[in-house]
Amino acid sequence: MNPTAPQRGVSFQLATPKSSQLASGVSFQLASPKNSQLASGVSFQLATPKSYAVKHLFRPFYEVLAAGRKPSGSSSLPKNRRARALPLKMASPRYPKSSQLAMRALSLLALLCLLSTHSVADTLRIDNTAGGAATELVGTDARLQLIVSRSESNGMTTDWTRRVTFTAAPDGLVSIDPSGLVTPLADGTVTLSATSDDGAVATATLVVSGTGQAQPVSFCGQVVPIFTKLGCNGGGCHGKIAGQNGFRLSLLGFEPGEDHKRLVAESRGRRVSLASPDRSLLLMKTINAMPHGGGARTDRDSHEYRVLRRWISQGMPYDQGEIRTVSSIRCYPKVRRMAGGSEQQLSVIATYSDGSVADVTRAAVYESNDTQMAEVGATGLVQTGQLVGDVAVMARYQGHVTVFRAEIPLRVEMPSQSIAADGDPAALESVNVVDRFVRKKLHSLGIPASPPCDDATFLRRVTLDLTGRLPTLDETNTFLADDAADKRAEAVERLLASDDYASFFARKWGVILRNRRTGGSLQVSNMLFHHWLKQSFRDNKAYDQLVDELLTASGSLFSNPATAWLSQVTDQNERVEDISQLFLGQRIQCARCHHHPYEKWSQEDYARMSAFFSTISKKTQGTDVTFVTRIAAPSAKHPKTGQNVSPAGLDAEAIQSDAATDPRGDLSDWVTSPENPFFAKALVNRYWKHFLGRGLVEPEDDMRVTNPPSNPELMDALAASFVESNYDLKALIRLICHSDVYHASSDALADNVIDRRSHSRYYPKRLQAETLLDSIDVVTGASTAFAGMPAGTRAVELPDTGFNSYFLSVFGQPDSKTACECERSSEANLAQSLHLLNSEQMQKKLTHDQGRAAAFAADTSRPTEAKIRELYKLALSREPNDGELKSTLSYLGERHHQKEPWEDLIWALVNSKEFLFNH
């Protein structure tokens, strides 16, 4: 800085303190360089404030605080960390210019210290007592869970609820325990304070009322939730269909009227005692004062015990008049970025039918969808583990659910640069939509992506995924020799246009559409349905059209093979469940008997879906089966009330169908509508799982509110793209297969080895039973014969799963008895290992007289090395490396003309992990 510069040109750079020349030539660095004019229009910028103890405030500091113009500078901090803007104006000079500059520099430093101290203190806050949450406690049974949060310098918001000291003023109105639970003592308005060790204070105001009034206990609103909270009415205890030890409750309290009768009237009322409430079996077993199979569920001093005891002493009444019910629940926070090994207290607020709200945090039931990533306790305290990714915690209260999502990054401190490869943030908009949102997620988590895989790996991967077979020798040689930049995209196009693609996906869909024989032999219906599916994929039939043809199919199997699904799935309930699971990703089986414990689906929702199939009739003439629609108004009976209900989609308005109209048309219109929130997402998640090894939602057909996707933005983007393409399945496949995510290596880096769901690398997949058998046939040169099928038929081309094959069964081929992908097993087991190592079937393939080992031994026209290279390309789609080639040549030695050493080599290859997995 020029020491003779005029006063109006004085400039400061504010950053971490580096150097200070407090003499005639004043320079001061306090932050990332930004010029500021400390004259009549003073401006400055503050970055990452640190807390300093302000011990001395110099006289010029007060002069700096004199009223002046509004600063033109802006803070570079996030909004919730921004230092308050103070108007600054320089006073008339009273010192020599050099001293004046020095003193003003010190004054500004003091101001910065003050602002920094205030900015940290201001970040401590009590979060959940405003913005629609509970701000009052009404009645002696009310409770409020406080949440104290703090914004840190790294941009994260952390939970300080159990790290502060709580106080309340005036005394005697409420009590606050160390976990932040507030309980009322007397009526009045109270100020709650939370103080941290460094002196930061957060306050909130709470109104307490109704503590002096005797309040009746609500059986539906208070007693039943206690049974749920304590686990009494769960499926493993008294809530199961037969009850437990002679006492039954409705599952999760969905039938409170029946529960009241069983408690009060059954067994001559011995479970409750009005004369001596504390001697009631209900209470004595709950605290294990009498032998109880479930042990102590609570203690005598607990809130739950006091409520149950008061209900008994009031005469065990059932709620009278209009019962206040829960309309919805919500949790706070909804989403939070958390470090591994940290904790977050949740708050759950219920909104009731009368418009009132109440804190139900301690009455709600919690469950984590991945306990290795995060655990949650009965109080709603979430504790994260050391894994990286997203985890969801469900909170359930009186039939309603809400979800808290935590993102656990590898690194808390994140670089500020763009995640686009070229450093341009706008470049993200030009990349594949898959890469855009996967990169964004990985950046947020601080996880690096593995580099691209090599060409040989990609060819094997995409060929297996699109056709269910290994690349041929010609395909491998041609692809590896090709230098074209777009050869991977060309390979995808070639495979999509092949008949193998149509056969493979016809098999995939046939399995979950239950295309299975009903007798001991293959039936015409199985073949017709398989060929209909195959032709649909060959023609790239739009997915919404394919589903429409399945849902509305009428006529005979010969004229309309799509009716085979109706023929296979004859039970009306199973049709409802299959449609929901296959095409909507919703498992509503629970709602057949009771309210879904993890979703909002009720028995009425289930019945309304069932009504769509109420007019379907089946006519049989010889071997010809015809499906027709009866002329009748579609309806179904509510399983509890017995009342007729009109058809309606899930979470949709009821449809008033004409008696002369097939209601399945209305069902299809709703299912395949672009506005349907489930249809497109269910399909893209299923295909994402097929190609990337793990669904954005797992399991792939269980897309609950309480089981959110690992990358919600990507899910939305994929679904939107699929709808915009008019449900073009091949377009969706191209989108996935052309992405960097799909091209990534499966080799883990040191910093992404713990990633299990964010797709920082390609996740290896075990070959499915049919593909593995076909691949072994290719490498051994000995094909498998299937009864009734032409010679050379591959396992992935079989029309159904009824062919007798021990190999297919032991390696997890499903029986097609359900629409669930979970019926197919991909888990390794001892029987599989033994079969590959030493089964009669494998021995026959290896030693076959016309097999590959025999052919290689007899072939004296080619060098041994050439045959080894060919074998590696057939099995692994790559050349052997130098070490593999050297050891193999050494093993074969002079025996290269014998069959047995070639058998050993083939046996070793097909038992290698590289062969058994698509990687």
Descriptive terms for the model:
919 residues; alpha+beta; Immunoglobulin-like; 4-stranded mixed β-sheet; 34% helix; globular; disordered N terminus
What layout of secondary structure does this protein have?
Elements: E1 20-21, E2 27-28, H1 59-64, H2 97-123, E3 125-126, E4 136-138, E5 144-145, E6 148-151, E7 157-159, E8 165-169, E9 174-176, E10 181-184, E11 188-195, E12 201-209, H3 219-229, H4 256-264, H5 281-286, H6 303-313, E13 326-332, E14 335-337, E15 343-345, E16 347-352, E17 357-359, E18 365-368, E19 374-376, E20 381-384, E21 389-397, E22 400-408, H7 433-445, H8 455-467, H9 473-481, H10 487-496, H11 499-512, H12 524-538, H13 543-551, E23 555-556, H14 564-568, H15 572-584, H16 603-610, E24 616-621, E25 624-629, E26 636-637, E27 644-645, H17 663-671, H18 679-692, H19 712-724, H20 729-737, H21 740-743, E28 765-766, H22 769-780, H23 806-810, H24 830-838, H25 840-847, H26 852-858, H27 864-876, H28 882-892, H29 899-910, H30 913-916, E29 917-918
Parallel strand pairs: 4-12, 14-22
Antiparallel strand pairs: 1-2, 3-6, 5-10, 6-7, 8-11, 9-10, 11-12, 13-16, 15-20, 16-17, 18-21, 19-20, 21-22, 23-25, 24-25, 26-27, 28-29
